[in-house]
Target: Tyrosinase copper-binding domain-containing protein
Amino acid sequence: MCDTGAVSLSIWCAVLACVGSKQPCPISVFEKPEEVLACEQRAQNEPVNQALASEACLRTYFVNRLTANPMLPEDYAMLAGFAEKKFGKNLPPSGYRVRRDIRVLSVTERHKLFRAFNVLYKTGVLARFGRLHGIQTLRKHSGASFLPWHRVFTAAVEEKLREIDPEVSLPYWDFTMDTYLPLPSESIMWSSCFVGNGNGTVLEGPFRNMYGGLNTLIERDIAQNGTRLINKDDIDKLMGLCFYANITTGNDPNYHQKVNNLEVLHDGVHDWVGGDMSYGEYASYDPVFFMIHAFIDYIWEQFRRRQSSSMCSVDVEKDYREPKDYAVDNVPGHAPWDEMHGFEYLQNHDGLWRNWTTAVYGYEPAPKCPKCGNSENLYCDMNVDQRRPEGVCVTKTRFFCVDPPLNDFDRNTSYEEPVGGGATVIQGTRHNEPPEDDRTRFMSQKEGLAIVRQQVGQVTPSLQSVS
Ligand SMILES: *[C@@H]1O[C@H](CO)[C@@H](O)[C@H](O)[C@H]1NC(C)=O
Ligand SMILES: *[C@@H]1O[C@H](CO)[C@@H](O)[C@H](O)[C@H]1NC(C)=O
Ligand SMILES: *[C@@H]1O[C@H](CO)[C@@H](O)[C@H](O)[C@H]1NC(C)=O
Ligand SMILES: *[C@@H]1O[C@H](CO)[C@@H](O)[C@H](O)[C@H]1NC(C)=O
Ligand SMILES: *[C@@H]1O[C@H](CO)[C@@H](O)[C@H](O)[C@H]1NC(C)=O
Ligand SMILES: [Cu+2]
Model:
């Protein structure tokens, strides 16, 4: 079955042989698991290259068995610091802060942010949050606690940034401004002025040469066919609703078919960025994660304002989902009184307190025409969106990035110490895409090979649980 002659397939075969047979590697024969055969069969009805599809099926098999890096004692020690200060119950030590789109920051503000992120990276703090997020794939995703937990998680990272530099606040990335470009992949976001390149290993910009959760340099693979960002129409649809239950995930296996689900829309952004960002287990090692989540949180905040208005008259501190409808398959962790994992002195419904955005942080409104925040990275376009005759702010492209050199920290070489911890292969889940996303889950050959090489080097006893 493995004798196709293709080099790539023989690597797959070697890996699968090790996994399936529990014998020492290398072994030349293996049985493809049922799940892979079924996937290949589905692919036969698709107009795709069958060899690549077959490889992608194998890759998906592996990816679904990736597990998050385990938490380390130092990670718990850091979280104990939040518990000690009762972060969120008490005013934050570093004071109230205001979040803005990253493209309206001054160059100096941007550089202060990048320096703070680099300090958090070098001191291993970013990886601690990466691991904490990674182990919440089920308990804090695909369910009601998604929004409040990510609110606290993101605010905690922001607090750490401000311990480094009290003038920094976490910016958001308003990706609706990127959706107006013919090629959103050309947004100035993906330049060394902002978060660095989006194609492959991150080798440019302030986050270059950082290791992610797979113990390899962080990768992105932006704007793959079939993926899409959240646009202004998506947000308007959410704003037509009044209840928390209308925009969140409950016990509905088909929830990703819904157009109004903010979690599902957010999954689409993760998949649009691609690479490490596509996997819940590894997404939050890349600093862009926090700019994505700040904007998701900002959308939620706008929704909460509408809930509080006379249009809805809903008490945002009390409105949650109904019992038995907290999460897909009722997985535990999503009830209002369940703990905020990592921040156990808080419960999920504490993430609904109004004072998060009055006492801890707030949002400057997203850039609007005609000024677009006076940003040199944005422009006002009166014609690009017929439904919005007042004009919309649109991001400039990466060709407008004139990179002022950042020379006070050395990003030329990789750090020797990977900080992610040891990824192993057992089990995991993927993001679910919004309904309009028509992509198949087939990965590129290059991406597939990268994962296989990774796994070949990581055949550990835990692999035996796969078969
Ligand atoms: C926010 O409100 C909750 C509930 O009233 C309270 O317990 C908590 O201490 C408040 N947090 C801050 C930072 O004021
Ligand atoms: C990514 O894009 C940059 C700019 O176009 C290019 O120089 C670089 O070779 C690309 N990298 C990869 C891995 O394709
Ligand atoms: C993306 O998908 C569409 C529709 O499936 C197809 O027409 C188009 O050629 C694809 N583009 C690329 C770059 O693969
Ligand atoms: C919104 O949620 C409320 C409360 O759960 C429900 O009664 C209503 O039918 C929902 N509306 C829509 C459009 O889903
Ligand atoms: C980093 O690379 C730049 C451009 O190649 C070079 O000018 C600079 O001196 C390098 N910095 C260090 C610390 O090696
Ligand atoms: Cu998440």
